[in-house]
Amino acid sequence: MAFETLLADALYVNWAVPREQLPDPPPPLTLETVVEGDATLGFVTLVLFRQRGVHLSRLPWLRVEFPQCNLRLPVRDSDRVASIWMLRQLVPAWVVPLGRLVARQRVSAAILRDRRGGTVGEQRWEIAAGRPLVLASRPAAAAVSGPALGGWESLVTFFRERPRGYLDAAGGLRRIEASFDHAAGIPCRVDVERADWLEARLPGVAAATWRAPHSAFVVPATRLVLQRARLPAAEVAAGMPVPSAPA
After folding, report:
1. Which domains does the chain show, CATH number per domain?
2. DSSP β-ladder status, 108-109 and 82-91
3. Mean pLDDT of all residues in the chain?
4. Residue 21: C-alpha distances to residues 41, 114, 122, 209, 221 (Å)
5. What is the DSSP string of the chain?
6. What is the pLDDT of residues 52-71, one digit of tens each?
7. Is the whole model's pTM more than 0.85, yes or no?
8. Residue 137 near residue 190 (C-beta atoms within 8 A)
9. pLDDT at 233 over 90
10. Sign of CA dihedral 83, 229, 59, 96
11. How far apart are CA 68 and CA 51, in angstroms?
């Protein structure tokens, strides 16, 4: 079953985090890490966007639109393919039955308010999912706080172009294959006003980290096709729960 959609104004906010503060992904996934000085760092990415015209490939006339927030960690799978481990997917409550029954994804209900300014990259997100998350972005000169990852274009590719997504599911992992166009990322400055939700989802990460993103960028429009894939038997392993506090 394949889904097609347009991701509009996708805002990527990234944090560099000491490896020991992050949860271990379920095998065979391994965290993507870099060494910076004496520290081994992993990464956390928040992606906030509006799904436009999302539909089943075989039902192009049935389309819906809604905002979404994904919390994910860059990982490598057993084939060493750049992938993501999806920790949370927040959507409006009315989308949850569709996401769970049709797409078979463990989406969670939230109130998502997204506002756009007059300039590409100017956004404000207010999210309530048990605890609040509030942040604002605006276009700015490319700036990185931490590992440069080979320059701006390479950095955007590192966080964005990961063709496999893994989700914890009953009895093991579920893999999603993604195909998308290459696109440039417009650098942004992000001010995190409330990070309570992030602190609850990843309690091992120092709270001060959320106020200082490693990097951020926006991709104005991306066509995306998602296809559920069958995992090789060797990759089917019981999912490891993500440490979290009660919502």
Report:
1. 2-226 (2.40.400.10)
2. parallel
3. 86
4. 9, 30, 31, 11, 33
5. -EEEEEEEEEEEEEEEEEGGGSPPPPTT-EE--EEETTEEEEEEEEEEEEEEEEEETT-TT--EEEEEEEEEEEEE-TT--EEEEEEEEEE-GGGHHIIIIIS----EE-EEEEEE-SSTT-EEEEEEESEEEEEEEEE-----SS--TTSHHHHHHHHH---EEEEEETTEEEEEEEEE-----EEEEEEEEE-HHHHHH-TTS-GGGGGS-SEEEEEEEEEEEEEEEPPPGGG--PPPPPP----
6. 766 455 555 566 778 999 99
7. yes
8. yes
9. no
10. negative
11. 7
Nearest CA among 45, 46, 38 for reference residue 18? 38
At 104-125, the pLDDT tens digits run 678 899 999 999 988 989 999 9
Query: Residue 204 to residues 21, 72, 93, 196, 201: CA-CA distances in angstroms?
Result: 5, 15, 28, 13, 9
Instruction: Look at the chain and count its residues.
Output: 247
**pLDDT over threshold 80, residue 238:** no
Q: How confident is the model at residue 152 (pLDDT cuts 50, 70, 90)?
A: very high
Q: Report the largest interatomic distance among the alpha carbons of the chain, rounded to a whole angstrom.
A: 54
pLDDT at 70: 96
Of 183 and 195, the structure prediction assigns the larger pLDDT to: 195
**Do the beta carbons of residue 155 and residue 149 sit within 8 Å?**
yes
Residue appearing with tokens 């927030």: 69
